[in-house]
Write a structure and sequence with these properties.
transmembrane helix; single chain; transmembrane; YVTN_b-propeller_repeat; YncE family protein; eight-stranded mixed beta sheet; 56% strand; four-stranded antiparallel beta sheet; Haem_d1_sf
């Protein structure tokens, strides 16, 4: 009886090993992916004159670009402008809230509210509106008015309050249930709860920008005049960190929990990790930053050197040139592209990631030519591999082989969102009794060609395990 139970235990163990190595593990392997995407300029989109800011509308997947020189907003879908919406005089900052687009018209002291591609309301606000922040709890929109030292509070399409804050409010953010307003002229932060100022926090000289570390619930303020970053917890300053000269834009990386500070006067970026600060050089006159949540990269626009620097963690991984006077830079989650506003021109440069789509054939005699056509572009080879470097998207392909041979698959469509390999089986056509019989096989998309060797090793291991189990059982019976 005891030996029978032992035998059953070994059988169960053998079945579990078989299940893991031949079913669970291959499924797990199929989900592994290593991207070798490359950042490149994919095109330029012509917009109005003097593009100055941009925002993304997740409800319709459009990108809205303010063009201050044309007093309009260019609406972009993918790589095309689908509408130009006329707004107030010198539209500057722009933001998405409540399913609507809010445009601050700096010269006409007003806010244009856009639904889709139409202006549905225009509100008069304070003098020189230059910052927009949304409170998702109260669903209020806060407009900072630079020259009137105030904040206008909007509920959807109507003004509900006008709040006095510090001197020259220049930036704002929502965090911890409050709205924090950066006052450039009074070296302070006004803390707003609903429609009331509940605190004023002293910071460094000429504070310029603010960001929120959602991991530690801390706020970081760049102090342009004192070359420092003020760290705030709630309504109290808890630290002051020295950075390079002229800290301007500031950004939080939620993957590494780093704070990136754009040091305008020193052509560098300071990276804050807790209380430690490291510095890396970028291009001349860095003007803006954005974060790519897919790759975890930070993109820095360099106005003076007509380039974009790409930073991964604490090191530069790429420098993209030939971008004329880049300023504001924004990530588009719809197509995962980076859009760069060229302030001194009338276009937006788009940066994308190219992926590898590789076709690998087996069965064709050595030296025979074959080809693959993708969207009208054909590549030939007499080796066993053809590769295309493509942007993410949907592509149709056709495999062309010599007369007397057939490829499986010989055509198809693929949604390319990561580098992939398509395996092709090419067989010789056999003629039997005037009937053409074509051997069939299956398409497989995989990351590696090492699976046959892997399975062979596993089979050998399982056979050896079976032999050992048999010997153990025989010895126990003795």
């Amino acid at each position: 009886m005891r030996y029978g139970n032992i035998h059953k235990d070994y059988v169960r163990m053998f079945l579990l090993l078989f299940l893991f190595f031949f079913i669970i593990f291959p499924i797990f392997q199929s989900y592994q992916h290593e991207s070798n995407a490359k950042f490149e300029i994919t095109g330029n989109i012509s917009v109005g004159d003097f593009p100055i800011d941009a925002t993304y509308d997740p409800s319709n997947e459009y990108l809205y670009v303010t063009t201050a020189g044309s007093n309009s907003v260019s609406v972009i879908s993918g790589m095309s402008v689908i509408a130009n919406v006329t707004v107030g005089d010198y539209p500057g900052v722009i933001g998405y809230a409540n399913g609507l687009i809010y445009v601050a018209n700096y010269i006409s002291d007003s806010v244009s509210i856009i639904n889709g591609t139409s202006v549905i309301a225009t509100l008069n606000v304070g003098i020189n509106p230059d910052s927009i922040t949304y409170d998702p709890i109260d669903r209020y929109v806060y407009i900072s008015n630079y020259e009137s030292n105030s904040v206008t509070v909007i509920s959807r399409t109507r003004e509900i309050a006008n709040i006095s804050v510090g001197s020259l409010p220049i930036d704002s953010i929502y965090a911890n249930g409050y709205v924090y307003v950066v006052n450039d002229g009074s070296n302070s932060i006004s803390v707003i709860n609903g429609t009331s100022v509940i605190a004023s926090i002293k910071v460094g000289e000429y504070p310029d920008s603010i960001t929120f570390d959602s991991h530690n619930n801390l706020l970081y303020v760049s102090d342009f005049g004192s070359n420092s970053v003020t760290v705030i917890n709630g309504t109290k300053v808890i630290d002051n960190l020295s950075v390079e000269e002229g800290p301007d834009d500031i950004l939080y990386d939620p993957v590494n929990n780093y704070i990136y500070v754009l040091d305008f006067l020193s052509n560098s970026v300071s990276i804050i990790n807790g209380t430690s600060v490291i510095n890396i050089k970028v291009g001349e006159e860095p003007a803006g930053m954005t974060y790519d949540p897919i790759n975890g990269d930070v993109f820095v626009s360099n106005y003076g050197s007509n380039s974009v620097t790409v930073i991964s963690g604490t090191r530069e991984i790429s420098n993209i040139s030939s971008i004329e006077f880049p300023v504001i830079i924004i990530y588009n989650p719809m197509n995962e592209f980076i859009y760069v506003l060229n302030k001194a021109s009338h276009y937006v440069t788009v940066i994308g990631q190219k992926l590898n789509l590789t076709f690998v054939e087996s069965g064709l005699p050595q030296g025979y030519n074959w080809s693959v056509t993708i969207n009208g572009s054909t590549r030939f080879t007499n080796s066993d591999e053809i590769s295309f470097n493509l942007l993410p998207g949907i592509y149709k392909y056709k495999v062309n082989v010599p007369s007397g041979y057939s490829a499986e698959p010989n055509n198809g469509s693929i949604n390319l969102n990561q580098s992939q390999i398509i395996k092709l089986s090419i067989v010789k056509i056999r003629v039997m009794s005037s009937t053409i019989i074509v051997s069939s096989s299956k398409i497989s998309i995989t990351r590696t060609s090492m699976f046959p060797v892997f399975y062979l090793i596993i089979i050998i291991i399982i056979i050896l395990a079976g032999i050992i189990i048999g010997l153990v059982l025989r010895n126990r019976k003795k």
